[in-house]
């Protein structure tokens, strides 16, 4: 694995120092925060990383009650402010705003995109329902929800929805804000269930547990393709259609080489935690 030597790794620890976040270097490119209770594993694009090794590291840290984050090189380079904001939130360094003072607004896709681009690690996404919390004229949190999906195998009129995104203003925790937006959506739509996913690279799913969601599935690591021209990540089914068509008859190893020749490299996440809130 090696020590912290790459330019982007040195840049990351320098940013922690600049933000006043205390840390120490651990073994194998781990940066330890909060007296060792939080660990940042810096994952380089230059190494042939094995998903199972990262998952094993997660398991080992969980046994020791250590909150582990896998920070990929491209995520640091493209989402620096959001990474630092998320780490500060994990460390409990956010300022507090009170959700009871907020009013719920219906917002449009452009407003959601602008807020989430600045405040969510994964930026924005298309959604059917878009809501924000406003305090004194400032948007402080946003939640996006899908439209209803029929679940005829359960019942003819059963509808399942997805919480696609939630983010607060970087540097702030809106106490009760997540619950307030959930309640607004539930009262408006009357879903039969609401599902959502936590990225295991960054989340233990605590916010879902506290809000009554039930963990129903833990998915394995998922291949993602990073376009080296624009540093954007896409899942295989989101690759450009011409590339997907050309890959259909190829073995997996051939596909990877083909995509490499077309400026895509393989990355992955360590899986997702699927949660469902039943009504």
The end-to-end span amounts to 46 Å
Give the topology string: H per helix, E per strand: HEEEHEHHEEHEEEEEHEHEEEHHEE
Structural class by secondary-structure content: alpha+beta
Radius of gyration: 20 Å
Beta-strand content: 25-35%
Classify the helix fraction into a percent range.
25-40%
- Report mean pLDDT, rounded to a whole number: 95
Name a few traits of the molecule.
279 residues; eight-stranded mixed beta sheet; four-stranded mixed beta sheet; 17 strands; 33% strand
Furnish the topology, listing elements before pairings:
Elements: H1 7-19, E1 23-25, E2 30-33, E3 38-43, H2 51-63, E4 67-72, H3 73-78, H4 80-90, E5 95-98, E6 103-106, H5 109-119, E7 129-135, E8 138-145, E9 149-150, E10 159-168, E11 172-175, H6 177-189, E12 193-199, H7 206-210, E13 214-218, E14 222-227, E15 232-235, H8 241-247, H9 252-261, E16 264-269, E17 272-278
Parallel strand pairs: 3-4, 5-11, 10-12
Antiparallel strand pairs: 1-2, 2-3, 6-7, 7-8, 8-10, 9-10, 12-17, 13-17, 14-15, 14-16
Explained architecture:
The protein has nine helices and 17 strands. The longest helix has 13 residues, at 7-19. The chain is of the alpha+beta class. A hairpin with a 4-residue loop joins strand 1 (23-25) and strand 2.
Short description:
Helices cover 32% and strands 33% of the residues. The protein is α+β, with helices and mostly antiparallel strands.
